[in-house]
C-alpha cells in the first residue's frame, strides 16, 4: 500500500538530507496545538489506540490535539505538495518505503529524527528488523542513514477465510499450494468466486508479489527492493506470478470484474460473505472483528517463508512542523506498553507490547503469524516500493492482464520497463 508520484525537486534531492541530517525542524515557540493527520479508521486497532494516546497526551502536556482524518489516497496524492507548504500538519502517518517516505526525505520535506531516537530510546524499543523502513540514505533508499519516521505497529499480508462457508462446502484450510487451488476450485464448482480481489488498488498487486515470493529467495527480494542486482522480469519469479494470476482469472478463482474494484470493495465483499477468501493485510483484522457477522480466521500463504509485510506505516514530522517537540512526545506515547496493548487487543500488531498486557484471545493468532514471519526473516516488503510510480504502473499492468488487453508476457515487459524507468540513477539497470 504505497505512494508513488515523482515530483521534480530541482536540486533538493541532492541537498535535502545532507543539510538536515542530525537536526530537526527549526525551533519556534509552541502554540500548544498539535495538528495530527492519519488515515486509520475510528474502529481500527490503530485508530482506537491512537485515540487513547490523544487523551493521555492532552492530559499530560496540557496541549490540544487538532486531529484530521485524511484518507490514504488523499495523503498519497498530495503529500509532496502539502508538506512543502504552510498547510502541513505537525505530525502525520505516512507510508514507509523508498517510493514514499524515502522520496519525501530525499526532497528535504521530512525532519530527521536521530536526536529524538537517542533521547527516547526508540532504537532500543523497536526490533532491528522493524527499523529498516524508518531509515533512509541521501537517495531515499531504506535501510541506512538517518531516521525519518517511527513505526508503532507491524503489518503483513495473509489469507482471511470465512469459516462458515468452508464448513458449509466441506473445504479444508489449505497447507500447500495445490490444496489452495483445490479449495478455490471447490467454491468455483458451487458457483462461488473464491477470492475477493481488487485491481484498481493494492490487493491484487500484493497477491501477484506473494506468488513471486513463492519462487524467490531473500537475495531476489533485496535485488527488487534495494537494487543489489538487476531484476529479470522474464525470470522465474515474475513469470510465475503473472502466469498464475492469469490462470486464476481463467479458472474463475479471481473475477475479471476486479479490474475496476478498490480495496474497500474487496474488503466489504469479504465482510458481507460474498467471497469466502481475501488475501490482504493485517490492517483489516480489527475491522473484521468489528464488522464481520460470520466466523472467520486466517492462515499464512502456504509453502513459502516470505510474505508481503514490514513495519507499519510511519509517524513522520514535516520539516515545516511548528511543534516538533510535541510531535515527538506524542510518538513516544503511542509506543508505550499501555497503548500497544490496546492496539493488540483490537486486532493490531503491536511492536512494543508485553504479552501479559493483552487480554483479547482473538488477537493471539494475528500476532503469532507475525512472529512466525519475523522468526524466519519473512517480511519481504511490498511490490510497489522500488519506484515512486510503480504502484500505479503495477495496477495498470494487472488491470490489462485481467481485461485481456495484455498477455502475461506483455504485462511483464510493460512493468519491467516501468520499473527500470523509475529506478534511481544509483541503482543500475534491470532486465525487462
From TrEMBL:
PROSITE patterns linked to this entry: PROKAR_LIPOPROTEIN
Superkingdom per UniProt: Bacteria
Keyword Ligase carried by entry: no
Signal peptide stretch: 1-21
Transmembrane segments: none
Pfam families: SBP_bac_1 (PF01547)
Keywords: Signal, Transport
Family: Belongs to the bacterial solute-binding protein 1 family.
Name of the protein described by the UniProt record: Sugar ABC transporter substrate-binding protein
